[in-house]
Amino acid sequence: MSAAPEQPSPDDLEVVIGPMRRRHLRGVLKIEQQVYPRPWSLGLFMSELAYEESRVYLTARLGGTVVGYGGLMCVLEDGHVTTIAVDPRWHRYKLGTRLLLALARGGIDEGAQNLTLEVRASNRGAQALYQRFGFVPAGIRKGYYVETNEDAIVMWANDVDTPEYAQRLAAIESALPGATITEGRS
Q: Which of the residues 130, 145, 147, 173 is marked catalytic?
C-alpha cells in the first residue's frame, strides 16, 4: 500500500481565491458532505449563485482542485456570511482565513458596513477565526442547528467600511503563509 502524498508546507502554497462557478460545485458538494451534518443541496447552491447582485460566493483552489468555499449575502448595509468550509485534509493551512478575508472585502465592495454570521457554540476554532476579524458575540439562537439541536452564537463585526477595519484586514493578510491569487468577478 503506497503512502498518501505529502502535503506542501503552508509557506509553499499558492491558493487561488475566485468566484464560485457551476463547474466548482462537484468539489464544493464533496466538502459540504464531509463537514456538515445537514449539507446544502446542489439546488440550493445553484439558487444562491443565481442571486449575482446580492451574493458573493467564492472558492479556494489549489492546483485547480476546490479545497474550500464561502458565501456572503448582502442586504442593505449588512453582509451575512452564509457558509464557509474547508476540506478537512486542508485544515490548519489558513484557507478559512483567506476565504473570510475575501468575503469581508467582497461585502465591503458591495456596500456592507457590518458583517454577521452564526457559528456552532461548540466550534471554538471558527469562533477564534471570527474574533480575529473583529466579530463579537451578540446573541444566541437556541437549537439553531436542528440536526444536532445545538445553539448558534450570533456574531457581528461592525464598521467594516472604515480605514481601521481595512488595516485589520491588511494585517491579517500580511501574516498569511504562501501566496494568494485573487480572481475577479467578471
A: 130
The contacts found for 64-67 with CB under 8 angstroms, 24 or more apart, are 65/27, 66/24, 66/27, 66/28, 66/30, 66/31, 67/15, 67/27, 67/31, 67/95
Candidate list 32, 48, 93, 118, residue with the active-site label: 118
How sure is the predictor about 3, in pLDDT bands with cuts at 50, 70 and 90? very low
The beta strands (E) that lie in 1-113 are given as: 14-19, 55-62, 65-75, 78-86
β-bridge partners, 152: 120, 141
pLDDT tens track for 74-123 = 999 999 999 999 999 999 999 999 999 999 999 999 999 999 999 999 99
